Amino acid sequence: MHKLYKMLTATACCVAITHGAFAQSLPGEGKTIRFARGDSLGANYIQDDILIQGLEKLGYDVKLTTVSTIAFFQAASQGDLDVAADINIPQEIAAYEPVKDTVELVGDGNIVGGGTNGYLVDKKTAETYNLTNFEQLKDPKIAALFDANGDGKADLVNCDPGWQCGDVVDYQVEKFGLADTVKTVRGKYEVLLAETFARFKRGEPTLVYTWQPSWVTDTLKPGTETVWLPIPYDAMPDNIHATNGHLVKGVVGCAGGQDPCRMVTGSWNWMSAANRDFIAENPAVRAFLAEAKWPTSTWAEWESELNKDTSDRAIKTIADGWIAKNQAQFDTWVEAATKAVD
């Protein structure tokens, strides 16, 4: 009996040791990620929720902070934040250049095929006045159509102060000789858009700089309710580059059916960025961020949902719903990240 007990005990120990030898700890076990999201709410918040859930599956404890892109770059460069996944490239290139030695762009973009941006006008006005190019706003009579405050100039809704996209718009207005007829309006973008939507609903001429996929183009649908006014020629500030050129093929709603359409910065994408030391020490994070990406149709669907409800609960519900419907894809990303540490 005594011998049998010893044999059973030894066997149990061997099983425990063998199990322990084969059981692999998660790559993020015992580690924390200081994850940042931008201060402009959109489908990027849904993306970030999904990414955070994936990083937690990898064992990481994720601490979320909401900051501007410029603040993130500064903090990540100093080692005070680790990762962000909603860096707009090429618009944020100027802010990225000073920190590129300490902050790395990861992957090739989170929107499959990238997004576009440009100058959007209501279709009724575009067709009535045969508007097919942004430079036509040089005509005072055309510009006056979009005058919202009585000064005779077109009021072009622009980005928040401090956003690189707004600097590009201001530059192009000057470059194309439109400063005498067009005034860009910079403020809190969401607030400005509320009045823009109201003008559109009243049937008044509407002019706005925006991008897609976004909640704006979900409301002001290019091709059916609005059109894109292409720029007359390539023009960008010296510190920002249209990585793939300004011409974009297959843009739905380009004025006059033009294809390709010469857009403000060409194509753009949400990019992930990370402190270089952190990402070098965490190959699983690098692999996961590089794997995770969604088609434009998914981003547009998210934006449409957010147009109904932008609460934290709604964002969480949309993110959870996507994972539930795409569990196999999500698990593939996590598995690839886990293998990256081997």
Automatic annotation (TrEMBL):
Stored InterPro entries: ABC_Gly_betaine_transp_sub-bd
Pfam families: OpuAC
Sequence ranges assigned to domain ABC-type glycine betaine transport system substrate-binding in this UniProt record: 32-325
Domain of life the protein comes from: Bacteria
Keywords (A to Z) from UniProt: Signal
Signal peptide: 1-23
Record's protein name: Glycine betaine/L-proline ABC transporter substrate-binding protein ProX
Originating species: Shinella lacus
Organism ancestry: Bacteria, Pseudomonadati, Pseudomonadota, Alphaproteobacteria, Hyphomicrobiales
